[in-house]
Amino acid sequence: MTMTVHHLQYSQSFRLIWLMEALGADYDLKIYARDSETNLAPAEYKALSPLGTAPVLVDGDTVVAESNASIDYVLDRHPESPLRPGPGDPTRERYLFWYHSAQGSMMPMLFVNTIFGMVQKNAPFFLRPLLRSVAANVGERLIKPRMTAILKVAEEHLAEHKWLAGEELTAADITMSYAMAGARKAGLVTEAHPGCLRWLKQMEADPAFQRAKAKDDGRDMLFSF
């Protein structure tokens, strides 16, 4: 039975489309537009994922949500794929680190940054100076130091390797794509990070990435460099 990727527009579920294209897997794709007023998932999507989170992968009677869970599920179905180095592979340690750093370290920091921006935008005008001050303080004391540290490690890795785990594309690069692109959009990845910038351009040039972007009609502006 063919798996179906339920992709929410402008969301991290793009990574699952890229994975499927990189695998050359047979899959169906269903794209959902966000609500024009709330920017949230539509009711039809929430019926699949109660939290409205993306992606949602349907395989027969099995429904899998959350990005890394979906990616692992698909890779379990393709055990021969080099996209997930197995135990004993010399790139395994680096692979695991970057595969989990995306959701465990980078995305939470970027999410906090995004939330502060949304709160400021929607707050009464007289509260905005206070919120800007709080956001700046959190940014300097929490977000910037942690992001600086992980980007330093990324630079060190990419100075020696083409991709994050080694010389070949892996699912670690796919999971990191949204986090790294988001860090660049937030001004955290700069010209001081030549390895990360090179990696981002290389990512976008990947043929499977390009096929995934075409299927999504190129709508995700986070990946426009």
UniProtKB/TrEMBL annotation:
Its EC number is 2.5.1.18. InterPro entries: Glutathione-S-Trfase_C-like (IPR010987), Glutathione-S-Trfase_C_sf (IPR036282), Glutathione_S-Trfase (IPR040079), Glutathione_S-Trfase_N (IPR004045), GST_C (IPR004046), Thioredoxin-like_sf (IPR036249). Residues 88-223 form the GST C-terminal domain. SUPFAM superfamilies: GST C-terminal domain-like, Thioredoxin-like. One of its GO terms (molecular function) is glutathione transferase activity. PROSITE patterns: GST_CTER, GST_NTER. The keyword Transferase applies. Residues 1-82 form the GST N-terminal domain. It comes from the Bacteria. Transmembrane segments: none annotated. Keywords: Transferase. The keyword Transferase applies. This is Glutathione S-transferase. The lineage of its organism: Bacteria, Pseudomonadati, Pseudomonadota, Alphaproteobacteria, Sphingomonadales.
